[in-house]
Amino acid sequence: MHSIKNLSVRSAWSWVPSLYLAEGIPYVAVMTLATILYDRMGVSHTDIAFYTAWLYLPWVVKPLWSPFVDILRTRRWWIVVMQFIIGAAMAGVAFTIPASFFFQATMAFFWLMAFSSATHDIAADGFYMLALSSHDQSFFVGIRSTFYRIAMIAGQGLLVMLAGSLEVYADVSVAWSLTFAAMAVLFLAFAAYHKWILPYPVTDRDSADTHTVNAVWREFVETFISFFRKPGIVVALVFMLTYRFAEAQLVKIASLFLLDDVASGGLSLTTKQVGFVYGTMGVVALTIGGILGGMAVARHGLRRWLWPMALAITLPNIVYLYMAMAQPASYVVINLCVAVEQFGYGFGFTAYMLYMITISEGRHATAHYALCTAFMALGMMLPGMLAGWLADTLGYTRFFVWIMISCIPVFVILPFLRIPSDFGKKQSE
Questions:
Q1: Beta carbons of 36 and 160 less than 8 angstroms apart
Q2: Is 22 within a domain?
Q3: How far is CA 378 from the centre of its chain?
Q4: Domain for residue 226, yes or no?
């Protein structure tokens, strides 16, 4: 038995890291790389924010088709097929960037990438639970999180820096085409590797033949009804939709602000510099904030840290107001400002994630958590759609003043949240 357990762990090391790299990269491609690409290609900020905000939609509605991923074919099958499709979508972006109709064509491929990525998330998380014992799931949870963050670094940092480096030697469209072509090759390699390396869990099977359509539909409806009947659900939904209200707008404009020229109110950073700021300094600060947030809640419980974390995720946004007003020329100062904001986000986001867990507890915990993440995505999508228009209309300085005003709603709803006094605290305390 001991040797079998060790074999299971060694086997998991061969696929857990690569699977969560593959989960993170397309998400950051859709949410971050698309924004920077369109800015470099001369698309207006209004159009960038509005149309890329719609790319959150697959993550908003994924609970609607997640039961069918569980029933139709195996999770292993879904993982491999979605990775092939994601690779094909990246290739589609690469080939259509130089076209005169690049915006419409690349958006179509980004939509394909987004829906495939959301479906891949469902399958990958389900496969993780089926392929590993509860002990191994606990052991590898930190590993999967680490490699997901590495994907963030690769996407927000290394890939942006690659495109920026290529821009020195080639046209912007060629540079970004080559970047997405490299990503397409990477994902085809991921798909081939996972088709070969992923295990075949006994419980991962096509169960369509054991589920009638009526049974699936009844379970589906019951899951939704039970979620919206939870005590305090209205307050919970308002909180989930407002906690990231300011961030949802800021994230659509931050990179554009750093890239824009000084005469237009921006900071005139190069593409490569923006990749370094967000993909290295930003991600490091984000990770440290997240780790410290988890430690704080583990020591004193979520209720104790809810207000400090809400302050942490909102108040550091003021660094962008400072940068818009001062337009610092120092690259060090810019890195420090972004690091402060990202640290606050990492620390403050802990409360949001844990609160969604408190709401999800019960019989349908997995499905209810998926619904919470859907409302989280909706809370990012709707405000983000108007961010570009607001920035163009108000200018950067007044836009960042509006961002600070947008922090207020979450503090109005905080006093009404119902959180167990010991939630998140170590049992020994």
A1: yes
A2: yes
A3: 12
A4: no
Q: Residue 211: is its pLDDT beyond 80?
A: no
How far is Cα 168 from Cα 364, in angstroms, rounded to an integer?
52
For the chain, the domain total comes to 2
Indicate if 399 and 275 belong to the same structural domain: yes
Quick one: which of 43, 36, 257 has its CA closest to 155? 36
Question: In sequence order, what are the residues at sequence separation of 6 or more whose Cβ sits closer than 8 angstroms to the Cβ of residue 231?
Answer: 418
CA distances (Å), 370 to each of 244, 250, 428, in order? 17, 25, 30
C-alpha 51/C-alpha 103 separation (Å) is 10
353: left (phi over 0), alpha (psi -120 to 50) or beta: alpha
The CA distance from 197 to 127, in Å, is 13
Percentages of the chain per state (helix, strand, coil), in multiples of 5? 85, 0, 15
Rounded Cα–Cα distance for residues 295 and 355 (Å): 16
pLDDT at 4: 39
Residues 245, 300 share a domain: yes
Concatenated DSSP letters for 308-363?
A: HHHHHHHGGGHHHHHHHHH----HHHHHHHHHHHHHHHHHHHHHHHHHHHHHH-ST
The Cα–Cα gap between 279 and 276 comes to 5
What is the maximal distance between C-alpha atoms in the chain? 68
From the CA atom positions of the chain, what is the Rg in Å? Answer: 22
Whether residue 259 lies inside any domain: the answer is yes
Give the span between the Cα atoms of 351 and 243, in whole angstroms.
10
Q: Is it the case that residue 157 has pLDDT exceeding 50?
A: yes
Q: How confident is the model at residue 138 (pLDDT cuts 50, 70, 90)?
A: low
Read off the pLDDT of each residue in 319-335 and give the average, rounded to a whole number.
95
Find which of 63-67, 356-360, 389-393 is predicted with most confidence, using mean pLDDT: 389-393
Same domain, 237 and 187: no
1 pLDDT exceeds 50?
A: no
- At 94, the amino acid letter reads A
* pLDDT recorded at residue 312: 92
> Are 109 and 257 found together in one domain?
no
Where does residue 7 rank: exposed (0-12), middle (13-18), buried (19+ CB within 10 A)?
Answer: exposed
CA distances, 22 to each of 1, 16, 19 (Å):
32, 10, 5
- Residue 26 maps to which CATH number? 1.20.1250.20
